[in-house]
Each structure stands twice: as structure tokens, then as C-alpha cells.
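Continuing the batch. This is chain 6 of the set; chains 1 through 5 are on the previous pages. Same settings as before, nothing changed between runs. Recording input and output for traceability.
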Amino acid sequence: MHTTPDTRPAVVLLHSSLSSRSQWTTLMAEQEANYRFIAIDLLGYGKAAFPAEAAAAGYTLAHEADAVAAALASHLDAGEQFHLVGHSYGGATALRLARQMRERVLSLSLFEPVAFHLLPASDAGRQEIEAVVARINAADSAADATRAFIDYWNRAGAFDALPEVQRQRFTNGIAKVKLDFVALLGEPARVADMAQLDVPALVMAGAKGPASTRRVAETLAAALPQAQFTLTVGGHMAPITHAADVNQMLLGFLENQRLLA
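Output for chain 6:
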């Protein structure tokens, strides 16, 4: 049976920690006619299994990127190119995946990627996030650890203001969050390694986001050969809390890439 080839550009979407592929539901529904979106659940989130590698060895971004690459094999033809979008931990994973699959990545769109490995130990932004990680790891309970995590990215009291069912769901995921930080702070890639990602790139940061991710975004935008940096409304979670604004910026960038193709 003859089928018409799908000519829509493929766009891979990677979500933030404690989230899932459903983070992108509105974007996918509104733009389905124009783009072939492929939203992936990162390991330990959504319907993706908790990473078995964690029990045997130190967890790395390579584990995460390899899992995404394996998932993409069921959506894309061998060698097929795609645009890559990532938010927070998904953004850091996207950077790792792009370096591993450079010839297939057409563009990068990143919202406050938590690639803290790009910051030197002396950087105030790195010191800030390391203090947060220390509080999470020293917490007396999973709930206290989750509170430290949620409140940092949102505001003091944000965790306690959530409905009980949501607090419990987030608390159930804090073990994977701890692994995410192990992977992020242990990633060997440095600023100089970003030069190989010579693709059009959009690096976004929320105007009200924390210092740690602002520093990463600014550092990354300066290091990527073809990057543009822009501030959006909202904070670190703007792709969710201010989705319409962030999606409009993202789609403008993707449309430019389509016109230039």
C-alpha cells in the first residue's frame, strides 16, 4: 500500500525533572499540522522505567542520552535529522544527545538547561546550586528533600501550597532527581566542547529564574557558534507556567529554520 511521506519537520521534545512528556501536550496539539513532534519520557519519569544503571555505577548524562537515542529509533528512520528542544534537565540531556548525534541535529532550542558542569567551581551560580543539592541530600525525609527542590525552582512555600496528591507524586520522584544532579555535576563536557555544536540555537531564560541557570544560559549562548539568547516572562518553569509565551518564541525560531531549509 502506498503511503504519502510525512514532510513535517521532526521535533524532539525533552522535559524537565519531575515532569514528563505531557509537559508538551499543548504545544503538540496546537502545532500538529506543522511539525512532527516526538516527546520522550526521560528515565524515571512518566512511563519510562527508573534507570537500572544507577544501581551498578555512577549515573551519567550518557545513560540518559543513550536512552533517548534508543527511544528515537522507533520514531525516526536511520540517519533522519531532527530539531531538538529541551527544558531544564531535558536541556542538559539535549546538549549531551546533540554531541553524540551531531550530524542528525538540525537545531537546538533550550530553556534554562541545567548544564551546571559548564560553570567553574568558583562561579557563584554553581556554588548556589551545589548548596541546593547539599540541602536535598541532607534532608531528613523524601518530602523535605522534595520541598527544597520545588521551592528553589519556584518560590518559598511552593511545595506546601500544592495539593496533597501532587506533593506525593513529586516526592515519589525525588530519588531520580538526586540521580539527575549526579549526572549533571559529573558530566565531563566543558564550555570548549560546545563549539562542536555548530547548529542554529535558541537559548532562553526566564526573567525571574534563579542565578544558577541564568549563568548557565548566558555561558552556553556565548559558547555555541550560532546561538541567540533571549529572556522570557516567568521563571525557570516558564515553559509550563507561561507556556503560551515560551511556545510562541520557540515556534518563531523553528519557523525560521524551516524557511531557511
